[in-house]
Amino acid sequence: MKTAPLPRLALYEEVAELLRQRIFSHLLEPGSWIDELKIAEEIGISRTPLREALKVLAAEGLVTMKPRRGAYVAEASEADLKEVYHLLSLLESDAAGVVAAQATDAQLAELRTLHEALEAAVDNAERFFALNEDFHTALLRMAHNRWRNQVVGDLRKVMKLNRHQSLSKSGRIHDSLSEHRAIVQALMQRNPEAARLAMQAHFSNGLQAAS
């Protein structure tokens, strides 16, 4: 019996992902106006799927729609960041506690491997950021709560608006790596409380760097 092919993403979803990556990489700067006509011509589409894509990004908090003025890349205010980091700290520290208590040996080994890759990427900010995200994503997956994962995914999109600023702070990558060591140590020791506290400290320090 043949397996049905996976459906392709709708065009507007492909466009949304393209714009999302441009926003995260700051090719589209926070606060900048999004030239719909120019982008539509550049990627060879009509403005209809582009506008649908912008609605998706607006729902994610990455784009602001202004009446009669068009779409703008969102800017994360200091208040926004405080709220996002607060919620991420609550959700991901809880996930860390769950993983410390329930993870299999194979899952802990996977997290250790990701951390080792993070250690090796300390001099490459972009790779460090990507591996950091991989580590957090893996930990959340192992905590088995799809509702938490969905909320965290949306919050992290807003956090990424500010990622270059936080990474560029002097010594932040080394500090983040040290915080990850504490998280991994607590996980390997299967100590839920220590894992929760280490993750909370990680987000507290991350907020200070982002502000």
Q: Which secondary structure elements does this structure contain, and how are they paired or packed?
A:
Blueprint: H1 11-24, H2 36-43, H3 47-59, E1 63-66, E2 70-73, H4 78-102, H5 105-120, H6 125-143, H7 146-160, H8 163-168, H9 172-188, H10 192-210
Antiparallel strand pairs: 1-2
Helix pairs in contact: 1-3, 4-6, 4-7, 4-9, 4-10, 5-6, 5-9, 9-10
What would you note in describing this structure?
Helix content is 72%, strand content 4%. It is mainly alpha-helical and 211 residues long. It has two domains: 11-73, Orthogonal Bundle (Arc Repressor Mutant, subunit A), CATH 1.10.10.10; 78-210, GntR ligand-binding domain-like (Four Helix Bundle (Hemerythrin (Met), subunit A), Up-down Bundle). It has a two-stranded antiparallel sheet with strand order 1-2. α9 (172-188) packs antiparallel against α10. The longest helix is centred in the middle third of the chain and has 25 residues, at 78-102. The chain is elongated. It starts with 10 loop residues before the first helix and ends with a helix.
- The CATH superfamily title of the largest domain: GntR ligand-binding domain-like
Assign an overall shape: elongated
Helix content: over 70%
CATH class of the largest domain: Mainly Alpha
Q: Tell me about the biggest sheet? A: 2 strands, antiparallel
Rg over C-alpha atoms, rounded to the nearest angstrom? 19 Å
Q: Please state the second-level CATH architecture of the largest domain.
A: Up-down Bundle
Number of structural domains: 2
The CATH topology of the largest domain = Four Helix Bundle (Hemerythrin (Met), subunit A)
- Beta-strand percentage range: under 5%
Query: Between the first and last Cα atoms, what is the distance in angstroms?
Result: 56 Å
Order of strands in the sheet with the most strands?
Answer: 1-2
Runs in which pLDDT lies below 50 for 5 or more consecutive residues are 1-7
Helix-strand string? HHHEEHHHHHHH
Average pLDDT score: 90
Query: Count the strands?
Result: 2
Derived from helix and strand composition plus strand pairing, the structural class reads: mainly alpha
Number of helices: 10
